[in-house]
């Protein structure tokens, strides 16, 4: 049951949030940097017979209220985590199941570390707790790498998108999907996107992982340019209640390149009693 009708409608409008499906349990899909809720369009409808499917745009993305994007609030992942907590409470206080991709999964981890009662389980698709190379930890990106990526985005959103999309898909033969992803990237406000990229790549959740007591399942793929082996190992070692279910496909966006495989993996995990 939705709580406090007026404030809830305002919250839903800010996130362009929709709920569909005939089930009784809420299943929230969270997108990553540069995308919006439509990145789940191959997958989310397949769960409408069993769940109340919740789709939303993170503030600053897609059809969310861009005027609500406050740089200071969203300087770190805390802003996105706070939004997710508010959404879960508006849905009746949970617990909900969450499928989070990349940045969306990072926000879900942080939210679950602070309000575990709202979450039943987290299904984390190609998520890293920290993308930076720090000390002996190889997150995959040096500070120079990050600055270079941000500089190229500032120079040209279109050129940046044309470079990052094939890198993320990791299969030059997937031209239609590369074009789709490039379209998502190019639809962004470049200033907000730069802010989001910086937030994601500079985040470090490693110290928060031990506080995530809800069950987590890690879905990782081969040849993911954005999730290092150290990142995977860190999640497996630090999360108290975690299982790994590697997806036999490549790249950072299996929800676009191999939706049938991802759908089957999610469905199998949701079928488990916890």
From TrEMBL:
Q: Which Pfam families match?
A: Abhydrolase_6
Q: Which UniProt keywords apply?
A: Hydrolase
GO molecular function terms noted in the UniProt entry: hydrolase activity
Would the keyword Hydrolase turn up in this protein's UniProt record?
Answer: yes
Q: Which domain of life is it from?
A: Bacteria
Q: Please report the stretch or stretches of sequence annotated as the AB hydrolase-1 domain.
A: 27-264
User: What family does the Swiss-Prot or TrEMBL record give for this protein?
Assistant: Belongs to the AB hydrolase superfamily.
Q: Give the protein's recorded name.
A: Alpha/beta hydrolase fold family protein
- Which species expresses this protein natively? Asticcacaulis biprosthecium C19
């Amino acid at each position: 049951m939705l709580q406090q009708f007026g404030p809830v409608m305002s919250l839903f409008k800010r996130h362009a949030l929709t709920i569909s499906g005939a089930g009784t349990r809420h299943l929230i899909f969270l997108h990553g940097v540069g995308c919006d809720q439509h990145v789940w369009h191959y997958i989310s409808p397949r769960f409408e017979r069993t769940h109340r499917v919740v789709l939303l745009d993170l503030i600053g993305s897609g059809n969310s209220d861009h005027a609500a994007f406050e740089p200071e609030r969203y300087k770190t992942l805390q802003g996105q985590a706070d939004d997710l907590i508010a959404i879960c409470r508006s849905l009746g206080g949970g617990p909900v199941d969450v499928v989070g991709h990349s940045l969306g999964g990072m926000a879900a981890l942080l939210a679950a570390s602070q309000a575990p009662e709202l979450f039943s389980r987290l299904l984390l698709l190609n998520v890293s707790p920290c993308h930076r190379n720090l000390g002996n930890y190889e997150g995959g990106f040096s500070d120079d790498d990050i600055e270079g990526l941000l500089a190229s985005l500032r120079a040209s959103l279109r050129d940046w998108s044309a470079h990052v999309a094939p890198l993320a898909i990791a299969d030059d033969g997937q031209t239609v999907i590369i074009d789709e992803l490039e379209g998502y990237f190019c639809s962004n406000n470049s200033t907000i996107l730069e802010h989001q990229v910086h937030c994601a790549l500079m985040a470090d959740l490693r110290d928060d992982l031990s506080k995530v007591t809800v069950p987590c399942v890690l879905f990782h793929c081969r040849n993911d340019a954005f999730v290092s082996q150290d990142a995977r190992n860190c999640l497996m070692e630090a999360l108290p209640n975690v299982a790994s279910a590697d997806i036999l496909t490549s790249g950072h966006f299996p929800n676009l390149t191999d939706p049938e495989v991802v759908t089957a993996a999610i469905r199998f995990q949701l079928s488990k009693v916890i």
